[in-house]
Specification:
single chain; alpha/beta; 5 helices; 5 strands
């Protein structure tokens, strides 16, 4: 049985590394991407169970990543993260089918709860409880 693959899309290398380590510690397969373009052009798009994406990135934003996946017929659970929360963007994102909208800094537990409760992504093999 394959573990769910979570894509991390963030232009900040420290955020990518931290999220990658966190997800792997909970038993998920994770793949980190420095941009929306890099993720959308990867061959892993078809296998991804959930995307965790920063809203504010150069080029394609996290919300645009979600919108392009939906437009391509490959809607994937998307958790948007941001250091610059905006109620209007949040409302539009959630109305557009985004699974969750988290303000940075968020706790590890908060992110894992979002993965379990909202995204429908189950636990990986050997996942900590």
């Amino acid at each position: 049985m394959k573990k769910p693959l979570i894509a991390i899309v963030d232009d900040d290398p420290s955020v990518r590394a931290a999220l990658d380590a966190l997800l792997r510690s909970f038993g998920y397969d994770a793949e980190a991407f420095a941009s929306g373009e890099a993720f959308l052009s990867s061959q892993l798009v078809e296998r991804v169970a959930c995307v965790i994406a920063d809203i504010h990135m150069p080029g394609i934003t996290g919300l645009e990543v979600h919108e392009r996946l939906v437009a391509s017929g490959k809607p994937v659970s998307t958790i948007l993260i941001t250091a610059y929360p905006d109620d209007g963007v949040r409302a539009a994102a959630l109305a557009g089918g985004v699974t969750a909208y988290l303000r940075k800094p968020f706790s590890n537990d908060e992110l894992i709860r979002c993965l379990h409760a909202r995204s429908g992504v189950g636990a990986g093999e050997g996942m900590a409880s």
